[in-house]
Amino acid sequence: MNEQSHPAPASNVSLERRAWNIRRKALLMGEVQGQGYIGQALGIADVLAASYFHAMTHRPADPEWEGRDRFLLSIGHYAIALYAVLMEAGILPEEELETYGMDDSRMPMSGMASYTPGMEITGGSLGHGLGIAVGMAMGLKRKNSDAFVYNLMSDGELGEGSTWEAAMSASHHKLNNLICLVDFNDQQADGKSTEMLSAEPVVPKFEAFGWHAQRVNGNDLAAVVAAFDAARAVTDDRPRVIVFDTTMCKGVPFLEQRDITHFVRVEADEWSKALAVLEEGKPA
Amino acid sequence: MTHNSHARRYEPRKVTPKEDRVATSAMIASLAAEGYDTEAAPFGNALVELAKTRPEIVGLSADLAKYTDLHIFANAMPDRFYQMGMAEQVLVSAAAGLAREGFIPFATTYAVFASRRAYDFIAMAIAEENLPVKIVCALPGLTTGYGPSHQATEDLAIFRGLPNMTIIDPCDAVDIRQMVPVLADHNGPVYSRLLRGKVPAVLNRYKPDYQFTLGKAQMIREGRDVLMITSGFMTMRALDAAERLAKDGVDVAVLHNPTIKPLDRETILAEARLGGRLVVTAENHTVVGGLGEAVATTLLTNGVTPTFRMIGLPDEFLEAGALPTLHDMYGISVDGIVRQIKGWV
Ligand SMILES: Cc1ncc(C[n+]2csc(CCOP(=O)(O)OP(=O)(O)O)c2C)c(N)n1
Ligand SMILES: [Mg+2]
Questions:
Q1: Distance of CA B181 to CAs B50, B95, B171, B262, Å?
Q2: Across the strands, what pairs with B311?
Q3: Which residues sit opposite A73 in a β-bridge?
Q4: Which residues, 6+ apart, have CB-to-CB distance to B142 below 8 Å?
Q5: Residues A103-136: pLDDT tens digits?
Q6: How many interchain CB pairs under 8 A, A with B?
Q7: Distance between CA atoms of A43 and A163, rounded to whole angstroms?
Q8: Which pTM value belongs to this model?
Q9: Which residues pair with B71 in a beta bridge?
Q10: Residue of A70, A102, A185 for testing the chain B interface, max B β-carbons within 10 Å
């Protein structure tokens, strides 16, 4: 059970290239549907690359392997981003990309555990992930596993009371095997998070709740990797959170400059344009 | 020890040929694609009109103003709008507090989040004290292809169990526009479903003098063979189905019943007593605990026993997918209604 010392599957593909591949796959899926939460996917790609190709222990061929680090997608609407990394990691076959969001696809628009290998929970009703992560972290400890539970959540979810019940619970129960990832893109459905129900200052809040907390630029891969390393290296019994400040639509400048909303509108002819722009920045 | 108590079924699914694939309609609750006249944002616009003469009206949303048409009110009367962020529990608790201080709050979110996340707060802070809070919720029943996280298939059942609660399932833009002042005048809590965006206007086409009346079912179309008792957008579906069935010689009456609670027992009993008609309820909701069961109880406890059938969603967590596919699969499309009624007459 204790195979935590094994790193993520070895590869000579750079993390930059992984993040780029994730962005590309997400755009291709967006093109299939003509819509999708592409702004979020482009923004979180670096964090997902670091999760699956640097931090996490997992076996692509066996997504239910008992020794795996668990990755919970609390934000079900970010499913397009998770499908992209699951394909990049070889957990989902890339051929299925073109079924995204279609009837009978294994990749519904909002993430569902029963549909997709590698999708641990059915998120989407926001504010659920952290509480479930608390229970899984408790369960792993009971089983003497040293696997980690990662919960990816959003700044919008910081508004839900359930998030803070779980946060208090995690530190009370000394869940140092729990790592919470917060995508702070300063956006939610009706507008900017900080202008609607501000969770700031986020780091001191988590600290006051007994957590080890960091905040980094979520689109600076070196900083992201360092934050994951620091979170896993903490030796005390605090749960850990990393708040990632991200830029929606990162990597496609003409979309980044658009009036950003929760559901970024991309016209039918713009998907190929976005893919072409992305191509220009292709890392080695 | 392995976790497999819920059915994982992610074996490769059948892959639909490219040309036959249907895309998921995301958050589009608008049913306008069906060739009806539409009205834009009937709820938001009606609320602004009313609020001009009713200073006690305030609006609140939990990060879904834009998606419930309350942004129209927020833009028109910014100082009377509270953006609560994504926090449905404090949304309804704060609405209760405002009501205690003499205001009439209209609070909006999606139907799933009001009925599931905020329920205890609605029950104790609002309903138990009979406060005039109006909870108005988009994405009722099966109006999104996002799967169970967004499909409010049991909201009516949940709220029907709550004393003091008035429950509305409006059909169209006419119902919605007309119900807003009526809900504000009702001195108690209300849960109403909502269609937003470009909302079809249908009832006035069939009945030019239609007027939404709280607690009243109204006959929209007369018919000798089948009595359909319907709510929400199933009324427009039933009206379309009735036209199709008429061509096959089946004469269908459609009794529109937008007030789920308190139920208009008198009208329902009187219509069901006009003997000989098959009685069919149709609702955009699970067959557990909604309009169908409410009507069935009314009939049976009053000794009225026509042949009775229910059209509604199954007692299941529904699939994700394109809305037309899902509506057909679960039998609440016009085709689905026609198919079922033909099988019964
Ligand atoms: C409990 C709950 N309330 C409301 C919603 C509707 N909703 C979907 S996404 C969203 C915005 C949430 O904020 P965030 O995840 O930060 O949004 P993003 O960064 O993707 O714009 C809302 C309110 C939901 N899915 N769950
Ligand atoms: Mg956000």
A1: 7, 18, 17, 18
A2: B282
A3: A152
A4: B151, B153, B284, B313, B318, B323, B326, B327, B330, B332
A5: 889 999 999 999 999 999 999 999 999 999 999 9
A6: 130
A7: 22
A8: 0.95
A9: none
A10: A102
Give per-residue pLDDT as tens, A21-51. Answer: 999 999 999 999 998 899 999 999 999 999 9
Q: Which residue, among A98, B225, B280, B318, has the nearest Cα to B328 in the 3D structure?
A: B318
DSSP A80-91: HHHHHHHHHTTS
List chain A domain ranges.
14-280
Contact yes or no for B149 and A159 at CB 8 A = no
* Percentage of chain B exceeding pLDDT 70: 90
Helix (H, G, I), strand (E, B) or coil at B70: helix
Alpha helices in chain B (DSSP H): 42-51, 70-76, 88-100, 111-112, 119-121, 155-160, 173-185, 203-206, 234-247, 265-273, 291-301, 323-329, 334-344
In terms of C-beta distances under 8 Å and separation of at least 24 residues, what long-range contacts does A10-13 make, across chains too?
A: A11/A53, A13/A53
Put simply, the answer to whether B87 touches A108 (Cβ < 8 Å) is: no
Residues in CB range of B53: below 8 A, 6 or more apart: none
- What element of type H or E holds A139? helix A129-142
Token pair 């893109």 in the structure block, residue:
A185
Region of residue B232 (phi > 0: left; psi between -120 and 50: alpha; otherwise: beta):
left
Distance between B289 CA and the closest CA of chain A, angstroms: 23
What are the structure tokens assigned to A138, written together?
Answer: 């408790």
The structural domains of chain B, ordered by start, are 38-200 (3.40.50.970), 215-344 (3.40.50.920)
Nearest to B137 by CA among B99, B181, B97, B91: B91
* pLDDT for residue A260: 86
Is the Cβ–Cβ distance between A52 and A58 less than 8 Å?
A: yes
Nearest to A191 by CA among B186, B326, B61, B261: B61
Residue B183 has which token pair?
Answer: 């809900």
Q: Which CATH architecture has domain A14-280?
A: 3-Layer(aba) Sandwich (3.40)
Distance separating alpha carbons of residues B190 and B133, to the nearest angstrom: 6
Q: Does B44 lie at the interface with A, CB-CB under 8 angstroms?
A: no
Pairing of strands B190-193, B166-168: parallel
CA A155 / ligand 2 centre spacing (Å): 5
